[in-house]
Amino acid sequence: MNPSPIESFKRLQRYDDRRPGFQGEHWLVLGAGAALLLASRSSPSPLRRTVGSALGSALLVRAASGRQGLASILRYLPLGRRW
Q1: At residue 33, does pLDDT exceed 90?
Q2: pTM > 0.70: yes or no
Q3: Helices 25-41 and 46-65 sit at what angle, rounded to 10 degrees?
């Protein structure tokens, strides 16, 4: 029996929280996100451009915020101070 996508995501998130980080990890994630954004721009398929932009943007947010997620950097934004 296959787990649901949400359960799979939670398992992956728990694994990521437990694993040790390595020096330069954020730079690699930043490069991967920028490369994905640039590569998806030239695709003729709107679906591929949309998915590539979403995944690339998610990697850029991950590089900026680290493992704590977007909530850790929202406090530096004017809108995020309300949360």
Answers
A1: yes
A2: no
A3: 160
